[in-house]
Design a protein that fits this description.
386 residues, globular
């Protein structure tokens, strides 16, 4: 990666963080914390204090035993050595590595697909600037785990597609690292990851054969077991209680006519401007695919599409409760798919889509960001019907 694009990626990530910090400061100057945010911040404060008083190992050992996440507590414990008092800006700071991870993996994916460096930066930016990022409740300025899960899951999707394109064992080890981060960012992530990996494995099994496919996926799985397996092994009792007994959303069992509301939640996370732009790009790539489906269907970006559909399908068909943030995990996959529907090097639609995509995104992104920041204080609960 050259200096110019790398610098621009850093500037983009920092800009999003600064906006989130300003929104955080503005909101909490006149409002109290949301319940989930308060609970996570209280846990963060305990971890930081415990690290200073009892040491890093004690704090970390006791941080995850009653929690469904680990990464925020690791970050808080390390930050306690340089930050004397917990404050609300730490919620933004702790999520920033995931912002940059999503930016980097998104950029690498578009570069692997032959997109120029500057366009790869442009196409990566919506992965960290979709409207939900700016929500006061559930966005980067808040301190919940739904956005962190979405960013980490999106990073896994991008890393997986790069590994399948470049066919390097180092890339597959990085896939394992990305999965581990996603799992430690939220304990439910393996539900989505396993479905995507299953689909990718079956495709690759037919495409490249048994031995190479097993080697790659076993390598990635080994990294996951090494880096994240302990979290599930030592925390299994609490995770079972939390998700299978206590959690009302996970056990709601809503009828389909109600649970389908998660589709609307996902659309709201994307916002009108960005969603319209992405649908337009998908529409531009559709005619040639429809006319010669048998020829081009193997080249469709199935992994991104599956990655977008899996969270929504799981929430809808499991009858999950109407938590408006859970569907956020579908956003990165949808963006990756819409911006690269298929790999069609010999199709005129490829050049047509490439001509209009930078123009469409250059117009839609500023509008989307401006309207999202302007409307960020609107209550998320208005999404939920009475």
């Amino acid at each position: 990666m050259r200096f110019g694009p790398a610098l621009l990626l850093i500037v983009c990530g920092l800009a999003i963080g600064i906006v989130a910090a300003l929104l955080n400061r503005s909101f909490y100057s006149s409002h109290g914390p949301f319940y989930d945010s308060m609970a996570y911040f209280n846990q963060l404060a305990w971890v930081m204090q415990s690290t200073r008083e009892n040491g890093l190992w004690f704090a970390l050992k006791n941080s995850y035993s009653t929690s469904t996440v680990f990464l925020p507590w690791l970050a808080g414990a390390l930050l306690s050595y340089v930050v004397t008092e917990p404050n609300r800006m730490l919620g933004v700071a702790i999520q920033m590595p995931l912002i940059f991870l999503q930016l980097l993996t998104g950029y690498r994916f578009f570069r692997a697909e032959g997109v120029s460096q500057w366009r790869a930066v442009l196409y990566s930016f919506p992965l960290i600037s979709f409207p939900a990022v700016f929500f006061f409740n559930g966005g980067l300025g808040d301190f919940r785990m739904d956005l962190s899960q979405a960013l980490a899951y999106g990073s896994f999707l991008a890393a997986l597609m790069v590994a399948r394109k470049r066919d390097s064992l180092a890339e597959w080890a990085f896939v394992g690292l990305a999965i581990s981060i996603a799992c430690l960012a939220r304990a439910t992530t393996p539900v989505y990851v396993s479905m995507v990996l299953g689909a990718a494995f079956l495709i690759d099994l037919r495409k490249t054969g048994v031995a190479p496919t097993l080697q790659r996926y076993l390598l990635a799985s080994g990294v996951v077991v090494l880096l994240a397996g302990w979290f599930y092994l030592f925390n299994l009792e609490h995770l079972h209680y939390y998700y299978f007994i206590w959690n009302t959303d996970a056990n709601a069992r809503l009828p389909l006519r109600e649970s389908v509301t998660h589709v609307r939640f996902a659309a709201n996370h994307l916002g009108t401007s960005l969603l319209a732009a992405l649908l337009l790009l998908m529409l531009a790539a559709s005619p040639r695919l429809a006319r010669d489906w048998r020829r081009y269907s193997p080249r469709i970006n199935w992994i991104a599409l599956v990655g977008a559909l899996v969270p929504i399908a799981y929430l809808v068909f499991s009858g999950a409760g109407l938590n408006p943030f859970a569907a956020m995990a579908a956003v990165p996959g949808f963006i990756l798919f819409a911006l690269h529907v298929a790999d069609l090097p010999d199709a005129p639609v490829r050049s047509a889509a490439r001509r209009i995509a930078p123009i469409v995104m250059s117009i839609a992104l500023p509008v989307s960001i401006w309207t999202s920041v302007r409307d960020s204080e609107k209550s998320i609960y208005k999404w939920i019907p009475d």
